[in-house]
Specification:
- It is a single chain.
- With 188 residues, the protein is mostly helical.
- It has a domain of 115 residues: Orthogonal Bundle (Lysozyme).
- 53% of the residues lie in helices and 0% in strands.
- Helix 2 crosses helix 3.
Length: 188
C-alpha cells in the first residue's frame, strides 16, 4: 500500500510579534495543557507518583493575624493541638471558612465554624451545630487529609474541594475557589 506524504511549506511565514507579556501568557497556556495531559496520563500509575509532595518552608509558616479573640479561639487551638494540626494553620482555616461565625451556613450546606458538610459531620460523629464539636471535627478531618496526602497544602485543597478532586488532578484542583482558598490559608 502506497503512503501519501503531504509536505507543507510555509508561504510567506512571518514570525509573530508578541509582547513579553503575550509570550509569557502563551507559554503558560501551552505548558498547562502539557502538564494536564501528563498528569492525566500518569494519574493511575503508582510507580510514577511521588512518595510525598515537598512544600516550601516559607509557605504555611504564616502566623494567624486575625483580630478575633473571642470564646472560640481557645477551643480552636485546643482542637488543633489534639489532632496534631498546626494551630496557626487551623486558625486561618476557621477565619477563611466562617469568619468565626458559629452559625455560618454556606450555600452548599456547610455548617458552623469549620464549615463541615452534614455528611462529613456524620462520618466524624460530631454535631456541626455545637461549636466545640464542629471545631473538633474540622481539625480531625483536616488531619485525616494530611495523613492521606502527606502535605498541608494538599490537605487544605482536599478540605475545600474534596479528596477525590485532589486525587483526580494529582494536586490542587484547578478550581479558582480552591486555588484562592489554599493561597489565602497556606500562603502560596
Amino acid at each position: 500500500m502506497a503512503g501519501v506524504f503531504l509536505c507543507v511549506e510555509p508561504m510567506n511565514a512571518k514570525p509573530l510579534n508578541l509582547s513579553t507579556k503575550s509570550r509569557a501568557s502563551l507559554f503558560r497556556s501551552q505548558t498547562s495543557v502539557l502538564d494536564g495531559r501528563a498528569a492525566k496520563q500518569y494519574s493511575n500509575s503508582v510507580r510514577l507518583q511521588p512518595k510525598s509532595i515537598i512544600t516550601p518552608t516559607k509557605a504555611g509558616s504564616l502566623k494567624y493575624g486575625g483580630r478575633y479573640k473571642g470564646q472560640f479561639l481557645n477551643m480552636a487551638k485546643s482542637a488543633a493541638r489534639k489532632n496534631g494540626v498546626p494551630e496557626d494553620l487551623f486558625l486561618r482555616l476557621i477565619q477563611q471558612e466562617s469568619g468565626w461565625n458559629s452559625r455560618a451556613k454556606s450555600h452548599k450546606g456547610a455548617l458552623g465554624l469549620a464549615q463541615l458538610m452534614p455528611a462529613t459531620a456524620r462520618q466524624l460523629r460530631v454535631n456541626p451545630r455545637i461549636p466545640r464539636e464542629n471545631l473538633e471535627g474540622g481539625a480531625r478531618y483536616l488531619r485525616q487529609q494530611y495523613d492521606r496526602f502527606k502535605s498541608w497544602r494538599l490537605a487544605l485543597a482536599a478540605y475545600n474541594a474534596g479528596p477525590h478532586a485532589v486525587i483526580k488532578y494529582g494536586g490542587v484542583p484547578p478550581y479558582r475557589e480552591t486555588k484562592n482558598y489554599v493561597r489565602k490559608i497556606w500562603g502560596s
